[in-house]
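Thread: "does anyone have the structure for this chain?"

Original post by V.I.:
We have the sequence but no experimental structure in hand. Need at least a predicted one for the grant figures.
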Amino acid sequence: MEATKKLFAEKLLNVKAIKLQPANPFTWASGWKSPIYCDNRKTLSFPNLRTFVKIELCHAIQENFPEAEAVAGVATGAIAQGALVADQLGKPFVYVRSKPKDHGMGNLIEGELPEGAKVVVVEDLISTGGSSLKAVEALRAAGYEVVGMVASYTYGFPIAEDAFSNAGVKLVTISDYAHVVEVAATTGYIKQEDVDVLHEWRKDPANWGK
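Reply from O.Q.:
Generated one for you, tokens below.
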């Protein structure tokens, strides 16, 4: 798994799905200043990389959640990845909206699963974990058993780790922030002096740069 995390980190950097700019931070929608920007949806545009992500997410499910009977993707970023994974595994698929549809049936969960099905959730990116765990709550409220979650990438924020622990959800990712920083430093993408800055940001992203 360690080799996979490094390899995927390298692939994300190569296609610019992840950008690191310690000296010229990005501003997230939340208002946080960040030396990193990640858009895993770019992986869908590259067939070989898209297949790599699909296969590795499937491996993560088979190794960690073999009891899973169905797959749920979190809208909108993980709808495509979740559908690809479900197709590869030959399992039913649904996706979970961030809020109920405001017309028609007012669905929060789109699709249909067997009653009480054991579901593994697919996510593309974990930041604070809030939206990801809302999807878990929705599935549980609908009577499904969530056996765990797999994701392409996590920032590894302490707040997210606490949230997943409190919700009783095991999270497995195919790469993470620490491996991206490591690969970026060893390949010369960033300077060694930037590494400390990047690690400091992850400890307290809400207040970094203020």
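V.I.: this helps a lot. The chain has a mean pLDDT of 93.
O.Q.: and The chain is about 40% helix and 20% strand.
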